[in-house]
Amino acid sequence: MPVAIITGASKGLGRALAEALAARGWDLVLDARTRGPLDEAAGAVSAYGTRVSAVPGDVTDAGHRAELVAAAEKLGGIDLLVNNASALGAEPLVRLERLPLEGFRRALEVNVVAALGLVQEALPLLRTSEAGTVIAVSSDAAAEAYETWGGYGASKAALDHLAAVLGEEEPGLRVWAVDPGDMATDLYAAAVPDDGDPRPAPASVVPAFLRLLDERPASGRYAAPALLEGQR
Q1: DSSP assignment, residue 223?
Q2: Which of 30, 65, 117, 227 is at a distance of 20 to 30 A from 85, taking alpha carbons?
Q3: Which of 155, 156, 219, 222 is catalytic?
Q4: Pick the catalytic residue: 138, 139, 155, 219?
């Protein structure tokens, strides 16, 4: 069976994507920082009958990234790596003049440096897969200027560029940066706690990711809302 590593998989989009892949027969390695929620998510996902390995830890830790890849190798390899774990830089978000530099460094470490580190760790196995794929979960804040979203958006813009270059350097892989669009997640609630407007559940955008996996278009940046409407 195909094998995927998904970071930030204890809730939100990561968990929804894990459940959808498990329903299709994928074996999974799931990451999150907190063991309890991760174990609960892994138990729910394993109900689909596939093998699920829960590996708690911080993606900024090189040893933890090595553990994720080792767990995937035990399941047979790596066909898909989803860099979904994210940090905001400040909770709630603030204007750049007030953005804590330590928080910004944390966002860069989680969203960019750790993502690249995990790609580097996984590349030998991804290259041996007939359908090796990397998904970088991006944001519209990477391409649009929204007040208070500067630090987070800058980190996601950097992630987008790494994904674009990786796609050029690894023509045997598919490398997609995917903007999932607005979602009702804990991350968004922490970013803008006063925003009470309804937003789609993460599971509602998962079909866009599945479409990419089914159709395997060229490496590049894709927006989930457009994929759901049948357009790039």
Answers
A1: E
A2: 227
A3: 156
A4: 138
Q: State pTM to two decimals.
A: 0.97
C-alpha pair distances (Å), 64 with each of 21, 51, 152, 170, 191: 23, 20, 23, 24, 26
Hey, what are 53's tokens?
């390995």
152 is catalytic: yes
222 is catalytic: no
Three-state DSSP at 3 gives: strand
Q: What is the pLDDT of residue 231?
A: 52
Which among 86, 152, 155, 219 is annotated as catalytic? 152
**Angle, helix 114-128 to helix 150-169, in steps of 10 degrees:** 20
Q: Give the sign of the dihedral formed by CA 32, CA 38, CA 44, CA 49.
A: positive
List the beta bridge partners of residue 4.
28, 80
* pLDDT tens per residue across span 69-111: 999 999 999 999 999 999 999 999 999 999 999 999 999 999 9
